[in-house]
Amino acid sequence: MSEQHPFKWRHFQPEIILLCVRWYLRYSLSYRDLEEIMLERGLRVDHTTISRWVQHYAPELERRCRPHLKTTTDSWRVDETYIKVKKEWMYLYRAVDSNGQTLEFLLSPTRDAQAAKCFFLKALCSTPGSAPQTEVSELRTGLRSVIPHVVD
């Protein structure tokens, strides 16, 4: 997404796009619910358009908002369990702080060292102040040889 003009070539105002994306992410609304809400306000927006907005802008919103979220405590625990997702058994790894807030999670079809390392890398990168950046970058470098799809 372009930093200077993230809403370039869009037919709707940026405020409308961000409002739809925010409502979808924050509340348990479907795309069709949002289509109906916008229609009540005089805007004809198709549910597939809202879906595309969410897919396009949600990762950038998360990247920009995550540093401003409430910081976690210094103590957090890791939980692992085996659950069924869409009729398929998966391993669920979770990092939970001392207040019970879920910091990060990972679903993996396998229970092995690669999955655990991938989860810990994800958890360490997502929680600011949990590990010095030198350790995170060393872990990331070591994981590239084991898991080729690890990105910066």
Q: How many domains is the backbone divided into? A: 2
Counting copies of identical and different chains, the oligomeric state is: single chain
Order of helices and strands: HHHEEEHH
Describe the biggest sheet? 3 strands, antiparallel
Total beta-strand segments: 3
Distance between the termini: 17 Å
Mean pLDDT: 78
- Strand order within the widest beta sheet: 1-2-3
* SS-based class: alpha+beta
Q: What shape does the CA trace take?
A: elongated
Could you explain the architecture of this structure?
- Helices cover 46% and strands 18% of the residues.
- It is of the alpha+beta class and 152 residues long.
- The chain folds into two domains: 55 residues; 71 residues, no CATH class.
- It has a three-stranded antiparallel beta sheet with strand order 1-2-3, covered by helices on one side.
- Strand 2 and strand 3 form a beta hairpin.
- Helix 2 packs across helix 3.
- The two termini are 17 Å apart.
- The mean pLDDT is 78.
